[in-house]
Sequence to fold (145 residues):
Amino acid sequence: MKKKVLVIHGPNLNLLGEREPGIYGKEDFESINRDIRLWTEELGLELLEIYQSNCEGEIIGKLQELRHEADGIVANMGAYTHYSIAIRDAIASVHIPCVEVHLSNVHSREEFRHKSVIAPVCAGVVCGFGKYSYRLALEGLAHFM
Fold:
């Protein structure tokens, strides 16, 4: 049976390709999602859903809603990474391996981006490889789950 993966994009990621292309790249949101679908299939995983929300409560709701269906989570929580204790607690409470993802190398950016409140409850963190951060996270989950 294929392992099921939930991919969550947090705030402002729907604007990829338009938003600060010098930091996040020029590839648009839909193109990145197409690659995620392809990579998931290549790795023998089943893509449960790709979900994007700019709202903290909606992200928590999606984690709770799919907690009995997902075997793994790839999560780019954007700015919520640095301060959302509520999302951190939701990830911890669903007991599903989660990989935190960032397109940019958050450690080479502003000081406030160096701290993740989510990382301690994740199986791993991938950052700095642009859209390929998602590929690396999926590969890690494929071997971890």
The CA atoms of residues 82 and 115 lie 6 Å apart. The mean pLDDT is 93. The longest helix spans residues 29-42. The two ends are 12 Å apart (CA to CA).
